[in-house]
């Protein structure tokens, strides 16, 4: 029983954190809100050069042969930076699912996907595939995993409250993959949970910083116990969601028999954490947080979106109930 | 990262489970907050100790088996899952002992640890005073030095099982002119000291589980001073780390309660049909116990890597105490009109759980600690 990450894993996390701090500041996220694709101009390429984009691909395909325990810290960082790139769809779901399925689809796409030259999308069969128009191949996850070629598919777009998330209903000629749909779904759920943790952590950090320097009645509002306890409650939710999300990543990586139940545990806790973090952040910022100009809403809206994506907290509690036999 | 248990850890779990299955009393013991129940629980501690299960993580010379912290957590999971009795020695073993390991002299360690572990000497905590609860640094009980003794005058209160305990660990003011955090010392006080009287107070459940301690010129030898004279605050803070964190209330206790709650829901649903609102509350409670479990194993890994437990213990204290209330409140809702029955262990558990957000530093104090010491918010 050892929760510690290796030095290499921590160094990889720090490198990605630094890259995102430099290459993906709020201006870049805002630009993605307004542009054609909803994605950044260059961050995905930089992540590909670093090996992140294809890290879950086998080394024989040009990837790093890494698993969810290597990826989970990077997903937290992606959330922390509100990264508008398909790390969840492509790296956490698409590549491992293709690798599992093998066959002609994997043969056609794996090397390009590992290099970041082709982009994989993913979405629940009865739901939306985020950023599908900017992908090459989309995996639809339902009773089976079906791969749809974007070129030639019918895409119906909807706007998300998070403008960088372009939501698509995807329909088109599909190839059923020889991959476990529940595993593909759990990969997405686990990745969303880790991102929720990262978003929540940023919302907390930003709010702590704000209330320490915002003065009212002659002292920082962060000295007031009512404000402190909002933040303590948020910190509590994050503190207990994070290990569950990391444990879920491990369950996926090793094929733990309780994987689905414990992935749902992680997502339910992480959704609750990010919901509270967004609520707390707004309340403690006051009116400035309620503006479009101030950056806080970029993370709030990402949090709302991720909290509900791939099953919200209540949905996952129901899934846990079923696993517990009640 | 490897979140599987090693073969050694699995073997340890199996050994614990087997022993508990063969040795846990079939009938529940009387409440440990009554004179008779206290002695029944003491006898159970003897059985645990003699079989090597009382203090698994301690050195062998004090009756332990030098188990790792992970193994101790495993033991706790098995212990509570087996339905074994509450631990009457826990205030000594979980709170005082870690402090004795850190601050005690070799003589003190040899004198106190083994009898504590066996339940031959059961300890109670003498910290709170009528006018010093959350504000612990406001304590007034004085204990100036007189030669090689300290002479205690004052009053302590809310002392759990103080009317039955053999020894007390007390925080007192050895410099009578001092204020606040300075001038305090940590004294170990024999229960039969002349000038010390313990009077029971009925707790919320009506049992004499609380006591007030009255000190009137009670003389305690300096060999019972734990840590340096005047350094009691620092020593006490080490104890609070144990009190709030995983030492006192390991996840296994709540995992077992959550499993029983799931079982209770099944029983009720079988006879009355499903109730999705209450089912959701059951799942939330189960999730809380699991969240605590993984956070604890993650914390254990950080400790093994050399990180201090520090103020993060406050996270655990808030989590387990509020989880315990939620869990029992959910059970009472499931029981409906039977919830109020006094013979229900869920009602007993609920009444006890309600003390959790108060003792060991109220949860309001814990939230202050989280916001100021973990998040770094300004104090004023």
How would you characterize this protein structure?
The complex is a heterodimer of chains A (326) and B (380). With 326 residues, chain A is α+β, with helices and mostly antiparallel strands. Chain A has helices at residues 7-23, 26-34, 43-50, 68-80, 87-101, 103-115, 181-213, 225-254, 259-285, 296-308, 313-323, and strands spanning 120-124, 129-130, 137-141, 145-149, 154-159, 166-171, 174-177, 215-216, 219-220. A 4-stranded mixed sheet of chain A has the order 1-3-4-7, covered by helices on one side. In chain A, strands 2-6-5 form a 3-stranded antiparallel sheet, with no helix packed on it. In chain A, strands 8-9 form a two-stranded antiparallel ribbon. In chain A, a hairpin with a 2-residue loop joins strand 8 (215-216) and strand 9 (219-220). In chain A, helix 7 (181-213) packs antiparallel against helix 10. The model of chain A has no long low-confidence stretch (mean pLDDT 98). Chain B has 380 residues and is α+β, with helices and mostly antiparallel strands. Chain B has 11 helices and 8 strands. In chain B, the strands form 2 sheets. In chain B, strands 1-4-5-8 form a 4-stranded mixed sheet. In chain B, strands 2-3-7-6 form a 4-stranded antiparallel sheet, with no helix packed on it. The mean pLDDT of chain B is 95. The chains are: A alpha+beta (326), B alpha+beta (380). Chains A and B meet through helix 7, strand 9, helix 8, helix 9 and helix 11 of A and helix 7, helix 8, helix 9 and helix 11 of B.
